[in-house]
Amino acid sequence: MILQDIEDLNKEDYEDVLAFSADKSTLPMRYVAALSIIANFANDIDPNLIPDDEKVDLSICKMIMDGVIEIEDIGESVH
After folding, report:
1. pTM greater than the 0.90 cutoff
2. Whole-number Å distance between alpha carbons of 36 and 52
C-alpha cells in the first residue's frame, strides 16, 4: 500500500476517512496502530530500543495519571 497524503485524497475517499474517524468503534484499532507507530519511531531514534507497544501504552497511561497530558472528552468525532 502506498501512503497517500490526506490532502491529496479525492472527495469520496476523504469522506470515507472522515466517517471512519467519526466511528467510535474504530478507536481501539486506531489506538493500537498509534502505539505501534510511536514504538517504531522510538526505535528509529534509538536502534537499541526494542519496539514495544505495551511499554508505550503504559507510558501514556502514566502521563495521563500524572496529569502530564490531558485528554479532552471525546465529542462526536476525533480529529
Report:
1. no
2. 8
